[in-house]
Design brief:
Layout (H helix, E strand, L loop, with lengths): L1 E5 L14 H10 L6 H20 L4 H11 L2 E7 L8 E2 L1 H13 L7 E2 L3 E2 L5 H11 L3 H21 L13 H12 L4 H14 L14 H21 L15 H5 L7 E5 L24 H11 L8 E8 L1 H7 L15 H4 L3 H11 L10 H4 L2 H7 L2 E5 L1 H8 L10 E7 L4 E6 L14 H12 L5 H11 L7 H4 L21
Parallel strand pairs: 7-8
Antiparallel strand pairs: 1-6, 2-3, 4-5, 7-9, 9-10
């Protein structure tokens, strides 16, 4: 890896193109390095993972809305839409919108956490849609997805957005544009302009993940993917972008992030170096915010040691800065204790998640968030006894660059009224690559089968799983088979809007 120093430059410097981060990203995207077999295998796993959660959410309101909007933009020879058969084709940017929303709705796909946090699987819908519309092969899709993951992960390692209340999809726009650039084998000049355009139009505030969290949380990454496709299209037509988008005196860094004195060190692969970042990412066994994954596994164990929930006096979670301030009591967000809150809000309340995990010893993507579950009196009583504190030890591990040390867990201390204390800690989730039961292909397939059971016909499930595992050899026509179809009569329809 090459570590690039990134800082703001006054306009008078006339920063050379080759010294700009967007150009360096473009060079990585244009580097036709071979994809390692382990990376290709993991890409297959993550396409299965995305399909699992997309189909499980296929008739949820935001997904239905996004699909209806996409279907109003039909295009012969376009891209496919999750839930519909390959004969249903729409413009690629609208397929990315519909499919990206379906993937993101349940907050149940992969994650990477460092200086910023991200769901790098959000790169797959726009890159896949672009591949389907342009007639690319499975091997070309793999190369594009490898780039999307690489660029997003590398940006997330170096540049914090949430400290400045900027939503994390600001790293997704550039990564998706770069991935599409690799997919289409575009020249660096074109990718450079697309990356800059994509960043310029995908910066937004984090209010989408604060307070009354709405369906925009599901739409935000698909919107970034849609805008990335449009940015690539404009760049291919010879249009330029605001430049330098990262280093300029009125740039994103200068006015939205660390300001004119910013100093970032962004790692990117050297020329000829394989793009391996996807191997550093991790998926979710449980449908909840990633920082809760290890704590859910831990609470399954601890809950078995509590016989009477009324006997609990206090539950303290010692954890990282991020977990405490974003999904813990450090957020000072009263909605995180509201039994009538939306699923999106409950998913971002570690206090609620720990209460249910302790009591149920299990987690389900629907039942664990049901209103009757959230409003159960004994759960509400326990929930309001739970608090978080930042422990510097866990914050240090959260930000470590050493994969053997990096962790997103914490310590749970349950104090009973009789003075007895039940306590333990867990650093990484069981499904993590360093966890008790690291996930393999069979685990991704099991997740797919569980989440699509009763929604997808067995024959269609088998067809998809057989097809996706042949990804490196798929032809352009076969690439359309990566969208799982369900019976048309089972697809929900939403309210009419401007597009019909």
């Amino acid at each position: 890896m090459i570590i690039h120093d990134v800082r703001v430059h006054p306009e008078s410097d006339r920063l050379a193109r080759e010294d700009q981060l967007a150009w360096k990203i473009a060079q990585v995207a244009a580097d036709a390095v071979a994809v390692e077999p382990a990376v290709a295998d993991m890409i297959v796993n993550r396409i299965i993972d995305n399909a699992s959660v997309a189909i499980a959410s296929v008739n949820r309101h935001p997904v239905t809305t996004a699909r209806d909007q996409a279907l109003a933009h039909a295009r012969p020879g376009g891209a496919a839409v999750f839930g519909c058969g390959p004969e249903v084709r729409v413009h690629a940017e609208w397929a990315a919108w519909a499919n990206g929303t379906a993937v993101r709705e349940l907050d149940y796909h992969d994650t990477f956490l460092a200086a910023e946090y991200s769901h790098p699987g959000d790169n797959i819908p726009p890159i896949l849609a672009a591949a389907q519309q342009t007639g690319r092969s499975g091997a070309e899709l793999i190369r594009g997805i490898a780039t999307g993951y690489e660029i997003q992960v590398d940006l997330v390692r170096a540049i914090c957005l949430h400290r400045h209340k900027i939503d994390h999809v600001a790293h997704l726009g550039p990564s998706a544009a770069a991935g599409i650039g690799t997919l289409l084998a575009l020249p660096p000049e074109t990718i450079f302009q697309a990356v800059q355009q994509a960043l310029h139009v995908t910066t937004a505030t984090r209010q989408s993940r604060k307070g009354e969290i709405s369906s925009w949380k599901a739409f935000a990454p698909s919107h970034a993917g849609k805008l990335a496709i449009e940015a690539v299209d404009r760049a291919m037509r010879g249009e330029g972008a605001p430049s330098p988008i990262y280093e300029g005196e009125d740039s994103v860094i200068a006015w939205m992030l660390d300001g004119r004195d910013a100093q970032y060190k962004v790692p990117l692969p050297a020329p000829g170096e394989p793009k391996r970042a996807i191997l550093d990412t991790y998926t979710k066994e449980h449908s909840a915010e990633y920082q809760s994954q290890a704590l859910i596994d831990l609470c399954f164990r601890l809950g078995r040691q509590v016989q009477d929930w009324d006997a609990v006096q206090d539950v303290l979670i010692e954890t990282s800065h991020h977990t405490h301030y974003v999904i813990g009591t450090g957020s000072n967000d009263p909605q995180k204790f509201d039994p009538t809150a939306s699923r999106e809000t409950l998913d971002h309340s570690i206090m609620y998640i720990v209460a249910v995990a302790l009591q149920d010893g299990a987690w389900h993507h629907v039942r664990s968030y049901a209103p009757e579950r959230a409003q159960r009196p004994d759960t509400v009583a326990l929930w309001r006894k739970i608090r978080t504190v930042e422990d510097p030890r866990w914050t240090e591990r959260y930000h470590s660059t050493d994969p053997a040390i990096k962790a997103f867990g914490g310590r749970v201390i349950i104090t009973l009224r009789d003075g007895r204390v039940i306590a333990d800690e867990l650093a990484v989730a069981n499904a993590h690559t360093l966890g008790a039961t690291p996930w393999q292909r069979a685990d991704y397939i099991r997740k797919f089968e569980i989440l699509t059971d009763g929604i997808v016909e067995k024959s269609e499930s088998g067809r998809f799983l057989e097809t996706v595992q042949r990804l490196p050899s798929l032809t352009a026509d076969e690439l359309l088979q990566l969208n799982v179809a369900i019976p048309a009569a089972s697809l929900g329809r939403g309210l009419p809007g401007l597009f019909g």
